[in-house]
Amino acid sequence: MTDPAADPTPELATALAALHAMAFADPWPASAFAALLSLPETRLDAVADGFILTRLAADEAEILTLAVCPLGRRRGVGRRLVDTASAALAAEGATRLFLEVAEDNAAARALYAGAGFAEVGRRPGYYGRPSGTVDALVLARDLASLA
Ligand SMILES: CC(C)(COP(=O)(O)OP(=O)(O)OC[C@H]1O[C@@H](n2cnc3c(N)ncnc32)[C@H](O)[C@@H]1OP(=O)(O)O)[C@@H](O)C(=O)NCCC(=O)NCCS
User: 67-87, pLDDT tens digit by residue?
Assistant: First the structure.
């Protein structure tokens, strides 16, 4: 039987790591999610098929990771998670939302472009690939209009 007073973080971290492993070639371990969830600046928005983890510092926010399980894709889940987190972060005082995305991640780039993100920087060779490296694009979205 589950103790309702027990800390739900380890179980949640394990579930997030399992979903992350379905979405990324280099998934984060449950311990990484547990560490992030223990920080007050971390925000989690989750549904059955996916989740988004964000972090707020002063008036700037960052998407730490976004994952939708393969069978749940192309149904608007990713976009809804981004929009939900964006609105919540704006309400908490964030004026800009940043993220990093691999240049070869066409699905995520299309999602972010549709959600109003624009390129503001680039980290050359940031992500390893079997055949070499690809750049990380730094994208940002203005949240002031959502507040
Ligand atoms: C990127 C990801 C989160 C998208 O989730 P999703 O729930 O399938 O996205 P949505 O259904 O909300 O799609 C929103 C829009 O993004 C774009 N998009 C999403 N998947 C796409 C794909 N495979 N190819 C092209 N465009 C795509 C489309 O413009 C789409 O709108 P449309 O379906 O009306 O054409 C999902 O593919 C995923 O988890 N990928 C692996 C992890 C990852 O790359 N995370 C982001 C790291 S920065």
Answer: 999 999 999 999 999 999 999
Q: The whole model's pTM is what?
A: 0.95
Q: Tell me if the domain spanning 9-146 has CATH number 3.40.630.30.
A: yes
Three-state DSSP class for residue 41 = coil
Per-domain boundaries in the chain: 9-146
Give the mean pLDDT of the chain: 95
Q: Which residues line ligand 1 (CB under 6 A)?
A: 23-24, 66-68, 73-79, 99, 101, 105-108, 110-111, 114
Nearest residue (by CA) to ligand 1, atom 31, is 111
Sequence-distant (6+) residues with CB within 8 A of 129 are 104
| Residue labelled with tokens 């299309």 | 110
